[in-house]
Amino acid sequence: MILKTKRTTEVIQQFIENIDIYRDDWLPSHAAASTALPGFTPVPLLPPLAAVVGCLRPHVHLIMVHPIMNDVALPTREAPDSLMLYGFWYRALPGAHLGGSQLQKAMLLETPLALGRDRQGRPFALHDACPHRGMPLSHGNFVGQQVECSYHGWRFDGHSGQCQLIPSLTEDQKLRIDRIYAGSYACEEHDDFVWVFIPEPGAPGAGFTKAVEPPMPAPRIPTFSEKYKLAYLTADLPCTVDHGIIGLMDPAHGPFVHQAWWWRSRASIHEKHKNFEPIPNGFRMSAHTPSSNSAPYKLLRLYADAESITTTIDFVLPNLRLETIRAGKYWFSSLTTVTPITRSRCRIDVVAAWNLFRWVPFGPQFLKFVFAKFVEQDRRTMEQQSEGLKHNPHLMLIDDADRPAKWYFGLKAAHLEARKTGGAMKHPLAGPVTLKWRS
To answer: In this structure, how many other beta carbons lie within 10 angstroms of the beta carbon of residue 45?
Structure first.
């Protein structure tokens, strides 16, 4: 026992002394770790590498020992990080919530927002703090085309955030109020939701200027005909955005979390094979025939009278899951997002569009009922999981069912590295691959 403990200490010390050699095997890929420790693949490390190295040296207890091995395994345990990705569009709130002179509050990536709608029906988003004394602008009113602070009556253009009026100024006081900005964010409305572009935050204490111009338009749900129905659902999740996203793409939880007589049962579990391929900033589950143990897909096949039904699922950074089902001239698509509200809380929004069963009375209400069941089951599961995560347990991802989660962490790390260095993003998925699991 003493000899084994001594050997363990020596290996740990050697590992720390040579950490610069091992680190290249961790980011953005961790294939070496997977080989060294079968069945115990660590979640990829997300913080900047220098921070990781600095963290490891004084905290040797992060080294994880495989319970059935006689020696120390070198990979480390790392829980999913709550790093939030800036420079992307995020859903803020349903468009129906905006209107009139009343402003609405929203929080995205710990950024407080005041949202409203102008007389032309266009939405806008301002930083929810007056640059004068910090009063939330959401407590004020929208007057004409301007937002008025409830504290001292300062007014700001709703779209640019530029100051238009300071009532306390006298005629001989020549303050350049056109140089004062409340802080504004690019804003678009699509598919019943208002999207806001959240740029990289400025230096602490720095004031605002003109809004950052987004490099791309806000995402939209795919549609394949002029006439279609639309429905959405939203729910808060008591977990980090990373846990929310890997839960969203987890293929193995369905039979245990989403059990229903009209969907599928635990007894229907069987082996599945799915093909995946890389796409820009994400990955795709290639077009395939839907699961044979799903009652809705069986009903769809009868209704569409189609020779084949295909499903394609994409995941794209920072938080987009797009699913498209095609059955002849009929189709169904959804765009699901998991949006970080704070580092410990996120929100799931599901928007679906379809040209199926358009003649069925209460069709949107029925689909919303189905979505609500699924989302509530996920929300309850996340709530229960959060109880265990409070104690910072050891976590692991396994092949093949958890491979999409590994790709997500790899994409996130590669994006952060590319942004830091200014170089091209190195995709963690080199080419097409087939995964298999039971669900």
So the answer is: 22
